């Protein structure tokens, strides 16, 4: 990476300060703050309280900017601002808990606004092509059970495909798993995850 690396950290835990995925994000933040030339932007999609994407908001994207009503401009700004934030950063860090084998609905609401045809990807005769270039992503996953590498892990492919739709194909993952499988398993998993995070941050 260049000497100036801009990192966007997106958190999505509904448990507030008790969320283990937030703990992983904070570990990343502490390590990154020790690095010269690394700047961080924090985006908490739960605190943002993004609503589920609806037809009215989706339709506002289809109206030329100069023709939008005041209400349409306000609705379209949600997506416009989030897309600009992604484009302004070099690394996208997603701190993600696993809820019922999937991602939090708040994070899905974020993806629904940054995955936008004509802005972050386009359709071609050969399928969609990502328009977001030169970026990498890091997934920090916190899970009560152990799912990585098994058919039960529907979360990781989903995230990978959504990032890939934008054109972000480089994805590094750190998982803290088995967090509800006893104190010893939890401590060991978190210790290993924090060590992996430090290694990733050193490579920024």
UniProtKB/TrEMBL annotation:
Protein origin, superkingdom: Bacteria
EC number: 1.6.5.-, 1.7.1.17
Domain Flavodoxin-like fold: 6-199
Catalytic activity, as annotated: 2 a quinone + NADH + H(+) = 2 a 1,4-benzosemiquinone + NAD(+); N,N-dimethyl-1,4-phenylenediamine + anthranilate + 2 NAD(+) = 2-(4-dimethylaminophenyl)diazenylbenzoate + 2 NADH + 2 H(+)
Pfam family, one: Flavodoxin_2
Keywords: Flavoprotein, FMN, NAD, Oxidoreductase
Names of required cofactors: FMN
Protein name per Swiss-Prot or TrEMBL: FMN dependent NADH:quinone oxidoreductase
